[in-house]
Amino acid sequence: MTSEKPRLGRPVATSHAQIEKAAFRLFAEHGFDGTTIAAIAAEAGIGRRTLFRYYQSKNDIPWGQFDRRLNDFRTILNDQPNDLPLHEAVHRSIVEFNQFPDNAAPTHRERMQIILTTPELQAHSVLRYTQWRAVIADYVAHRTGHSPDDLLPRAAGHISLALSMSAYEMWLKDPYAPLTPLLEEAMLNLQSYLRN
């Protein structure tokens, strides 16, 4: 019988959530621009190289596991009944996609406050918005028999994003406002564009 040798060094035990909590603590204290990757890694108790296994850059951290969330968004859209009017299917999916547990940390409000108000993140955010719009364009194209690059699906993605962003801007202005009713109200405007 052989005994296992103890592992040397500090064991790496972390997660996306732990890194995000550490980063948001530092963002609140030093601002986004004043927080370095090295500081986030140290706060999370990991090395820089380990952090980069979870996030490619500091700009990716506020977005969380966005690629996984986009896959969830595709699933939400594809689970809508085919006989549901297109505008309503997109409307319902966007509202569902934007629901988060109250105990999420960082909170969804903290996350969106940084994403929408940090100048250093704006160029990176454009890439994320493009990915989000593409999910809607793909769905609308599938439902209408268009190509995702055709005008209707592309415009549906842009309009949906604009409506969602308007709701988010109103939500961030009022710390007591619930997000869902604002999204519901904003998304009603889709009906005039995606009638089918």
TrEMBL record:
Pfam families assigned: TetR_C_14 (PF17754), TetR_N (PF00440)
Keywords on record: DNA-binding, Transcription, Transcription regulation
GO terms for MF: DNA-binding transcription factor activity; transcription cis-regulatory region binding
Keyword Transcription attached: yes
DNA-binding span(s): 36-55
Domain HTH tetR-type, chain residue ranges per copy: 13-73
Stored PANTHER family: HTH-TYPE TRANSCRIPTIONAL REGULATOR RUTR, MYCOFACTOCIN BIOSYNTHESIS TRANSCRIPTIONAL REGULATOR MFTR-RELATED
Protein name listed in UniProt: Mycofactocin system transcriptional regulator
Record organism: Saccharopolyspora karakumensis
